[in-house]
Design brief:
Keywords: Membrane, Translocase, Transmembrane, Transmembrane helix
Subcellular location: Cell membrane
Shape: elongated
Pfam family, one: Hydrolase
Number of strands: 21
Radius of gyration: 34 Å
Number of helices: 27
Strand order of the largest sheet: 8-21-20-19-9-16-18-17
Largest sheet: 8 strands, mixed
Strand content: 15-25%
Helix content: 40-55%
InterPro entries: ATPase_P-typ_cyto_dom_N, ATPase_P-typ_P_site, ATPase_P-typ_TM_dom_sf, ATPase_P-typ_transduc_dom_A_sf, ATPase_P-type_domA, HAD-like_sf, HAD_sf, P_typ_ATPase
Membrane topology: Multi-pass membrane protein
Length: 812
């Protein structure tokens, strides 16, 4: 191996541990590079001084944030004030809505804390641990344990976790595109700076940490990007939009209701306040945000049990909306390891000599990839050759190389890589290689170059020496997963840097539709629209460069596709970052895990359907229950408006609407929100919810008010109002139950049982004397109750036909 360079990049012999002058607090020069790393004493000194990489990398919100987010909401504040008022002026029955809110908030906090525990536990398992030299030895430590002056080793796929200065470089190429936007990797030499957030694409080396913790700007960006979030999703932004409009509707309606009730009930202030609060509280869809948070949180817990780390919660929703999934072959469809199945010498080369060359090439790379590792396992190094120069493998150039002094005075330069890259088109060896590729085998070419390794044209005019045939291990679950995506109308695109024919053969073995039509990415058009057209028409692409993977994701997105990208190699990072959803394997490179929204810690591709299913469950079910909540909001606002315009007493006390909300919305919504749901996620959440909620709420409010007006003419005397309220409550309950019955479709045994149980609970309230008194609900006579039922039946029929008409007229 070449001797690695070493520099003192500050040009001085100042010790990195020099203390700051308390009078003139000037930071001493940057730490110098120490090949053996810091000593234990120096590490302790820096820890005591606070020069530690203390940026908290959190996978979830803090406990304080969770409690604050669930307790201190706009609607909780409104309900809290109304609850205090009701406790002062009315019986406890009319304050039940406050206890319901406390219970709901408690459930939300508990579920999110459970999700936090799951996320934090998985984050520790999946945390990348950089290799750091201390006391002359290399050990893996947590990122948060790095101190100023630590010597950190780098290899392909490693993420630079702190800012620093290169001390050793062996063909070290770093991609800084995520920081600078520059697409080409940068060759780093001793003395060059490296920034946290960049990652190694080829070669290796070591650097000294010169900025740790919050001093590194890129580290601050990484901290912000990695924080758990419940925002930036169509579902939650749609709910926020709805709540904003609800707030604006509530303000004038509530003011009008307060004035009208004080005027109508001028002789009984407490009763006027109680009925006013009874009109305001149901306008608030207080449980909607709670159920959304709970659904997401339980989704995280369910996926966590399957060793799936969701680094950003909206990723659950996002993957459910995906209609194209781009798969990297190596590590995704195939397992990471490979086996050498055959060695074919070319041009009369001696097999024993070829094995020596391969063994030496394996020894020349301190961090071999899967292909080279298979060669190392098959042909361990036995020749005492001296490596004078090495060229690490790069996904962009598709080959690696090394120059050796072979002990007999002869110096040779060898290259190992893709045959169709190293050989010119039409070379006789390529025909033999195509036959092997068609069997799904991976073939590497060992070739001798007459040029120096640092010559840009080193691969030109090489002499083929041997073919190394590798067999890739197919993931046993890959075929079933591809079949699942096909059944769900999600198009799978295999995008690989390997030979197109070989990739197509592997995809064909797994039953991917269109695998027989493979495309060599070197022939892809550069213009986005033309590239998108080719991508839409084909499924398998080989010889794709890392930049092309990124371009292909962008081209698919330009066609309106929601794109997920899976991968585990450093060549997938750019595409993972740009995709709508990035999915990394737990055994993948540190860089891929850092940019992905979802990490499959068990390295099982078969976990993806679970993530898709969880997202569909969340979105589909929240859409269902949102219709219930907003139907209530619409009928509450309209009832209040009708009462204000008619100058009559508001028909309900808070206890009545608490009962109705609990039975027709609260309890059913909780079960429906957590039920299985395989319906493909659809866009336009607000439109899809409101197209049902508005007509459903309008019909329910109208039917209820009609019953109330009829009852006002039917009943007379001092006790007429409770009888009128009971009749109106019956109509509203039956109408709301029909909306619930529609939302619960398609029926299963438990859905029918759920609807039946809610109906039975209301019937019990109507027939049990102490419950009648508690809720002030008692049906008087037979004429008015049956009239209420008839009105509710007519309203339910109208709702049924209206919902069907909406489905046809305004399909979502």
């Amino acid at each position: 191996m070449t001797e690695r360079a070493r520099i003192d990049h500050d040009g001085t012999a100042i010790d990195a541990g020099a203390e700051l002058d308390p009078v003139h607090p000037v930071r001493p020069p940057a730490p110098r590079f120490k090949p053996g790393g810091l000593t234990t004493a120096e590490v302790a000194e820096r820890v005591a001084r606070g020069d530690v990489n203390d940026v908290p990398v959190r996978s979830s919100r803090s406990t304080t944030d969770i409690v604050r987010g669930n307790v201190f909401t706009r609607f909780n504040a409104i309900i809290g004030v109304l609850w205090v008022v009701m406790l002062c002026v009315a019986p406890i029955q009319d304050s039940l809505f406050g206890f319901v809110i406390i219970a709901n908030t408690g459930i939300g906090i508990i579920q999110e804390l459970r999700a936090k525990k799951t996320l934090d536990g998985l984050a520790v398992i999946g945390e990348a641990k950089p290799s750091v030299r201390r006391d002359g030895r290399t050990a893996e430590i947590s990122t948060s344990e790095i101190v100023l002056g630590d010597v950190i080793e780098l290899g392909p796929g490693d993420k630079v976790v702190v800012d620093g200065s290169v001390g050793e470089a062996d063909g070290l190429e770093i991609d800084e595109s995520l920081l600078t936007g520059e697409a080409d990797p940068v060759l780093k030499k001793p003395g060059d700076q490296v920034m946290s957030g960049s990652f190694v694409v080829a070669g290796g080396g070591a650097f000294t940490a010169t900025k740790v913790g919050r001093e590194a700007y890129a580290a601050q960006l990484a901290e912000e990007a990695s924080r758990f979030t419940l925002v930036h999703s169509e579902l939650r932004s749609g709910i926020s939009t709805i709540l904003k409009y609800v707030t604006w509707m509530m303000i004038p309606t509530s003011i009008g209701l307060i004035i009208s009730q004080l005027v109508v009930k001028e002789n009984n202030l407490n009763d006027a306040i109680a009925r006013t609060v009874g009109g305001i509280v149901p306008m608030i869809p207080e449980g909607l945000v709670l159920l959304t948070s709970v659904a997401f949180a339980i989704g995280v817990i369910r996926l966590g049990r399957k060793q799936c780390l969701v680094q950003e919660l909206p990723a659950i929703e996002g993957l459910a909306r995906v209609d194209v999934v781009c798969l990297d072959k190596t590590g995704t469809l195939t397992e990471g390891g490979m086996d050498v199945t055959e060695l074919r010498p070319l041009g009369g080369a001696e097999p024993a000599y070829v094995k020596k060359v391969l063994g030496a090439l394996g020894e020349s790379d301190p961090r071999p990839n899967a292909s080279l590792q298979a060669i190392i396992d098959a042909y361990p190094d036995s020749a005492e050759w001296r490596c004078t120069e090495s060229l690490p493998f790069s996904s962009a150039r598709k080959y690696s190389g090394a120059s050796f002094s072979e002990g007999d005075g002869e110096n040779n330069t060898w290259l190992l890589g893709a045959p169709d890259v190293l050989l010119p088109a039409g070379d006789p060896a390529l025909e033999e290689i195509n036959d092997l590729n068609e069997q799904g085998l991976r073939v590497l070419l060992l070739a001798r170059s007459a040029r120096e390794l640092d010559d840009e044209a080193v691969a030109t005019g090489v002499r083929p020496t041997a073919l190394v045939v590798l067999e890739q291990r197919l993931r046993p679950d890959a075929a079933d997963t591809l079949r699942y995506f096909e059944d769900q109308n999600v198009k799978a695109k295999v995008i690989s840097g390997d030979n197109a024919i070989s990739v197509g053969a592997v995809a064909g073995k797994l039953g991917l539709p269109g695998a027989q039509n493979t495309v060599d990415a070197r022939k892809l058009p550069a213009e986005q629209a033309e590239m998108a057209e080719v991508l839409d028409g084909n499924s398998v692409f080989g010889r794709v460069t890392p930049q092309q993977k990124r371009d292909m994701v962008g081209a698919l997105q330009s066609r309106g596709h929601t794109v997920a990208m899976t991968g585990d190699g450093v060549n997938d990072v750019l595409a993972l970052k740009d995709a709508d959803i990035g999915v990394s394997m737990g055994s993948g490179s540190e860089a891929t895990r850092a940019v992905a929204q979802i990490v499959l810690l068990n390295n099982s591709f078969s976990t993806l359907p679970s993530v898709v299913a969880e997202g569909r469950r969340v979105i589909g079910n929240i859409t269902r229950v949102a219709t219930l909540f907003l139907t209530k909001t619409v009928y509450s606002v309209l009832l209040a408006i009708l009462v204000v315009c008619s100058q009559v007493e508001y028909p309900f006390l808070p206890r009545h609407l608490t009962l109705l909300s609990t039975l027709t919305i609260g309890i059913p919504a909780f079960f429906l929100a957590l039920a299985p749901n395989k319906e493909r996620a659809k866009p336009h959440f607000v439109k899809r919810v409101m197209r049902y909620a508005i007509p459903g709420g309008v019909i329910a409010a109208t039917a209820t008010f009609v019953t109330y007006l009829i009852a006002r003419h039917h009943y007379t005397g001092a006790d007429a109002l409770p009888a009128e309220t009971s009749a109106a409550t019956l109509t509203l309950f039956l109408t709301s139950m029909w909306v619930l019955a529609i939302i619960a479709r398609p029926y299963t045994w438990w859905r029918v049982a759920l609807v039946g149980a809610m109906g039975g609970a209301f019937l019990i309230v109507l027939v049990v004397p102490w419950l009648q008194d508690f809720f002030q609900l008692k049906l008087v006579g037979a004429t008015m109750p049956w009239t209420a039922v008839a009105v509710a039946a007519a309203a339910s029929t109208l709702i049924e036909f209206t919902f069907r008409w909406v489905d046809r007229k305004f399909p979502a």
